[in-house]
Amino acid sequence: MTPARPPGSDALGETLAYFRDLGVAELYLDGRFEEIEEEKKKISLKVKREAGGAPAGDAAAELQSLAFEVSSCVKCRLCKTRKQTVFADGSSSARIMFIGEAPGADEDAQGVPFVGRAGQLLTRMIEDGMGLPRSSVYIANVLKCRPPENRNPEPDEIASCRGYLERQIDLVKPEVLVALGKFAAHFLLETDEGITRLRGKWGSYRGIPVMPTLHPSYLLRQPAQKKEAWEDLLAVLTRLGIDAPARKGKQP
Ligand code: SF4
């Protein structure tokens, strides 16, 4: 006689099969089964909506759809400690894409990348220094969820999350990528060299020029290094044929 299945095991099996079909190899359930069931329903609803919605090739709509998918991601342990995912900010047709490391406390609270003190410095560098509205560039992070206590990202977390950033880059198709700090530089350039050696030298990610530079949170601790970061951003403007505004084009 076949032993009776424990209550709920059919639903759990269906859920695991569902995520396996989406390409998710590991799940951090940790007693969150009901919550995940809710997330599953939300994704299904969205997939149905998208089926008659965004035309393929509409980057803005595809990014929106990806953001929705990311919002219920449970592919790594950070899903257990985040308040919310932090997908991106800016224009889907940006010429410049800035990539940082991971959300911090302010970003986790607001759901927008680079809005804390480091983010405010980055905004000044873009707007006052480069003379570009922040809304004209695209800003994202390697990880979409905040690591607890702002610790460094773990390699398995980066591996779990990397497909999202790769897709963002594919959709935005920026002319230049700016890697803010070592985690973004290592992600894009597949190296483990220190950022102080990498910065200021052009690299390449799938044919897109990459300028590695210092992370704004490092610049807050080491303001004397702002000059180097500013030189890197000037090199980006030069590469794109954009003149640094005469009045504003000074070190932020
Ligand atoms: S960090 Fe990335 S892979 Fe991990 S739960 Fe968040 S979105 Fe998913």
Structural class: alpha/beta
CATH homolog superfamily of the domain at 87-239: Uracil-DNA glycosylase-like domain
**Rounded to an integer, what's the Rg over CA atoms?**
20 Å
Secondary structure tally: strands = 6
N-to-C series of helices and strands: HHHEEHHEHEHHEEHH
Q: Helix content range of the residues, please?
A: 40-55%
Strand arrangement, major sheet: 1-3-2-4-6-5
Name the poorly predicted regions: 1-9, 43-53
CATH architecture title of the domain at 87-239? 3-Layer(aba) Sandwich
Distance between the termini: 75 Å
For this structure, the CATH topology of the domain at 87-239 is: Uracil-DNA Glycosylase, subunit E
Hetero groups bound?
iron/sulfur cluster
Described by strand count, sense and barrel closure, the largest sheet is: 6 strands, mixed
CATH class bucket of the domain at 87-239: Alpha Beta
Overall geometry? globular
Strand content: 5-15%
Mean pLDDT: 86
Can you describe this structure?
This protein is α/β, with parallel strands linked by helices and 252 residues long. It is built from 10 helices and 6 strands, in the order αααββααβαβααββαα. The protein has a domain of 153 residues: Uracil-DNA glycosylase-like domain (Uracil-DNA Glycosylase, subunit E, 3-Layer(aba) Sandwich), CATH 3.40.470. Helix content is 45%, strand content 10%. The protein has a 6-stranded mixed sheet, with helices on both faces. The relative contact order is 0.12. The chain binds iron/sulfur cluster (SF4).
